Amino acid sequence: MSRDPGTDSYAAEARGITPRAFTRFRGMGRGWLALPIAALLLGVASERASAQTVRPVIVEHHGKKTRAKFELVNDGLVPLNVVIEPKSFDVSIDGDVDYRPLDPSVHLRLSAMSLRIPARQSRYVFYEASADSYPAWFVIPCTFSGMQRHQGLNVTVELPHTVYLVQDDPLRREDVKVHSAVYAASSARIYIEIENVSRCLGRVTSAEARGKDGKTAVASFPLLPHRIRRVMIPWDAAGVPTTLRLAVQDFTIEMPLGNASQVAGSADGK
User: Fold this and answer.
1) Is the pLDDT assigned to residue 221 strictly greater than 70?
2) What is each CA distance from 123 to 9, 69, 70, 82, in whole angstroms?
3) Which residues pair with 206 in a beta bridge?
């Protein structure tokens, strides 16, 4: 059985909200990127990335052997080449993602490692995946190239398809420990530190801060086995948040928020 978490994006997933998606510019000399040009290139990056899509971005599979597919979409006006290179990845306590070679314990077969996608078309990549032990996870970065050069620069766009192979046993309430949940008024942010003390993979489907006059939330993020995660929720509602609500698949955790200034050793909640 497969499940698409749906609201994730790749760079927000790993940071508690997605591994990484970015645009590269090749051919720049050192010191060339002045601020006005940087702003221009960021606009170009956004335009290029919006014309290419990998879907779904993140998926969870249940079962000992997975057969699945993802779609590579080229909404641009020129044909593009795509190179696929599966990786394993680690996630830091703050959600930073670090790619590494695919673990030998993960067994993956892909229908293609490179493709050419005509303009305004898409292609599917099929795969079979299993692991020596569960849970397991990996990412399939897909690098699009062949876009028109911009001001002498070659542009490539890397977009990921992230896969979680989930164990049979679900995460339990007693497996999740919230070490801290505080609101920092000076930065208008809620800082959470949460630990998965079990061997199981789980997922916070929603992290929501609530106050008398409003609420705000971040999208879903994984709880990797025996890992601590720090997550930040921007508070953009009126008033002051007082309650944290974590929806964790089959159960919910609700608790009062502390004040960062009252937490010993706290530096604005960080």
Assistant:
1) yes
2) 20, 10, 9, 10
3) 247
Q: In order of start, what are the domains of the chain with their CATH numbers?
A: 2-166 (2.60.40.10), 173-262 (2.60.40)
Residues 33, 38, 42: CA angle, nearest 5 degrees: 140
Reading across the β-sheet that carries 258-259, which strands appear in turn? 227-234, 189-196, 176-184, 258-259
DSSP state of 153: B
Token readout for 205 is: 């489907």
Residue with tokens 């590579």: 72
Total residue count of the chain as it appears in this document: 270
Residue 264's SS3 state is coil
pLDDT of residue 51: 85
Task: Please determine, for residue 117, whether its predicted confidence score (pLDDT) is greater than 60.
Answer: yes
Q: What is the dihedral of CA 158, 149, 48, 145, to 10 degrees?
A: -30
CA distance linking residue 151 with residue 200, whole number of Å? 49
DSSP 175: G
φ/ψ of 89, rounded to 5, equals -150, 155
Q: Which residues pair with 110 in a beta bridge?
A: 127
d(Cα 82, Cα 114) in Å, to the nearest integer?
Answer: 5
